[in-house]
Amino acid sequence: MKKSGFNQTAYRIIKLLEWLNHQPLSLEQINQRFLDDPMISKSLSQDTIGLYMNTLRAIGCEIDRPKPSNQFCYTLISHPFSYVLKEEEIQFLFQLAQCIDESVTYQDVLGRLRLILNLIDHASNPNRQDIRDRFFEVTRLKDLDQLEQMIDSLEYYCSKPVVLEVVYTSPPNRKNTRQLLPEKLLYWNDSIYLQAYMSEYEGCVLLRVDRMEQIKEITNSDILENLTLKRLQQEEIWIRFINCNLDDLPLMNYVNVTDYCTDPFDEKHLLVKFQTSNLFFLKQALLESGQLFQVISPQSFQQDLRAFLQETQGLYTA
Amino acid sequence: MPNSDSFYNPNGELNHWISGSGKIHISAFRILFLLKILNQSDMVFVTTINNHLINHPLIGRAFVSETLQKHLYTIQLSGWKIGRHYKDAQWYYQVEFNPLKYQFSLIEQQLLLKLLFLLRSRPIYGDVDRFLRLLKTMSSAEELQKISSGSLAVASRNDSALHQKIQHLESFILDNQVLEITFQHPNGQTQTHLIEPLQVHFDNHKALLVSINTETNKKCRYDIERIETFRQLPSRSRTRVIMTTVHFKLTGRLARGYRRYPNEQIQDKGDTVLVTHTTDDIETLLLRLLKYGASCEVLSPRWARELMAKNLQQLAHVLEAPVDAQLTNFVSNRVQTTEIPHK
């Protein structure tokens, strides 16, 4: 039935655009939506839908044709009806992508980068690709999809006892292949790291995930056994934090705490047991915590920290 | 321009045209073009619309008032809300609801919320009003309301008292106030602390107040729900009154692999890197530099260098104090009874 007072075809095309904006749709799904819409209530031929898609393309929409790689769905890549980002707004988004907060997790960082890239992709700016390139330049990332996929895979492997072969680029641009036992992912010092065990190093090592190019699981029971043993050889460190409670220690989010209690002789202080095979990392986390602390045990760690502080103090006494 | 490939409807109007990508529906195209113009600005005057229409090669003429109204009606039927307003003796149109704008997922709302908290108390990262304006440009007012509303701000608990407490604390932070707070310690005791509040931090559905305890001069985090009372004192915070530019030198391996942080400029001199860092939170910067050990030296300003030396001295003093033998015995005989907080 012909409905008066409005342009039926334009209505259909605008609705089609809105549906495609939510998700890619096949020809059948589009027709189902046309049938379900009380203002349309009929299905249309492939040629008519093709005409509508062409009209959307002519106005500036980028729409992928149905093909096997998109499960035979029309896919809206971009459209000119959202918002145009001004240069100062682009700069502001870049600034947000880079800001560092206390106790932020790697999931937060990744989520924030993805959100900002989505907001750029959703904009109607004709130079969107250029803005994307600048985003990658300021965040020093090569490819966010690749980083997300890498993190997904590493999350999976961290939960399993497996040896991975990793193609890793060490600074400056030295590519090498490393075999490791992955343990956990963490955000530290403005980067996402994988904590892992390698035959060549004592204790655990931290490898930057964005420097990993390829990972693959390998089957080698000898290496696995050797690295698992290495992982079990962890030192227990007891630290007494002065005038401190648990909420004051964001470092508990990324170092392995196995026990804690209030100091039985002075309840203003907190006793924490860390278990680690990477004393260097623990030392850095303790120093960055901003808490005054004492090493209860072992003595070797206490001496190491004293030597570290004495050497640093030397810079300021001259 | 339309050519022999074009054809006309019975009224003699151009109906379809073979464009570069194939045949299109020209009357729908006109309405989509109108929609595009309406989205380009907050205020679109009728004259602007007509200028665009006249200059477009596929349209080439202005709309009469009835046609414009009919097209706007079609657009509104499709789910858009277009307002008509009057200014400077002219009518203009404004898109009040655009269903094609960005819709934030629940996870994205949480991320934006964390950013909102961060910007409110750390303006160095950006102006919060500008952030909200930008979100409004990219999304709808309803979406923005979801993010900035108090109920979401306290993690969907709809706790207006907590939201009000957060707002008060945020205003104290921005005014660089010193506070006296009574705080219920996790062990059940109520304590009174003098603090310089720095930042409201939102994590794991918990709002935390990051502050400097003025008695211990240490950075502390207070669960805001555990803060029972707070009172403003007649003094101002010394910690983050002004922005500071700090110069430091990095040497050795650290210098070779150093990645510049935001708010930093670096000067590479081979094995040495000179860094200029601007911050509103000198304490946090110095803690980061402290962990670099002898590979990093704070050069200026002089007071920052002295503060670094003082921090090192304090830490060394505590570290070098003899450990009580009873305490050593206690930890070696300790049987774990406490549950480790979820990480």
SSE inventory with pairings:
The complex is a heterodimer of chains A (318) and B (343).
Chain A: H1 8-22, H2 27-36, H3 46-59, E1 62-64, E2 75-78, H4 87-98, H5 106-122, H6 128-139, H7 144-158, E3 163-170, E4 174-188, E5 191-197, E6 204-208, E7 212-218, H8 221-232, E8 235-241, E9 257-262, E10 270-276, H9 279-288, E11 293-297, H10 299-317
Antiparallel strand pairs in A: 1-2, 3-4, 3-7, 4-5, 5-6, 8-10, 8-11, 9-10
Chain B: E1 7-8, E2 14-19, E3 22-25, H1 26-39, E4 44-45, H2 46-55, H3 65-77, E5 81-87, E6 90-97, H4 106-121, H5 128-138, H6 141-148, H7 150-153, H8 160-174, E7 177-184, E8 190-203, E9 206-213, E10 218-223, E11 227-236, E12 244-251, H9 252-257, E13 264-269, E14 272-279, H10 282-290, E15 296-300, H11 302-320, H12 325-333
Antiparallel strand pairs in B: 1-2, 2-3, 4-6, 5-6, 7-8, 7-11, 8-9, 9-10, 12-14, 12-15, 13-14
What does this molecule look like?
The complex is a heterodimer of chains A (318) and B (343). Chain A has 318 residues and is of the alpha+beta class. Helix content of chain A is 43%, strand content 23%. Chain A is built from ten helices and eleven strands. Chain A has helices at residues 8-22, 27-36, 46-59, 87-98, 106-122, 128-139, 144-158, 221-232, 279-288, 299-317; strands at 62-64, 75-78, 163-170, 174-188, 191-197, 204-208, 212-218, 235-241, 257-262, 270-276, 293-297. In chain A, the strands form three sheets. Chain A has a five-stranded antiparallel β-sheet. A four-stranded antiparallel β-sheet of chain A has the order 9-10-8-11, with helices on one face. In chain A, helix 4 packs antiparallel against helix 5 and helix 4 (87-98) packs parallel to helix 6 (128-139). Chain A is elongated and about 85 Å long. With 343 residues, chain B is α+β, with helices and mostly antiparallel strands. In chain B, 39% of the residues lie in helices and 30% in strands. Chain B is elongated, with a radius of gyration of 30 Å. Mean pLDDT of chain B is 81; it is low at 1-14. The longest helix of chain B is centred in the C-terminal third of the chain and has 19 residues, at 302-320. Chain B has a five-stranded antiparallel β-sheet. Chain B has a four-stranded antiparallel β-sheet with strand order 13-14-12-15.
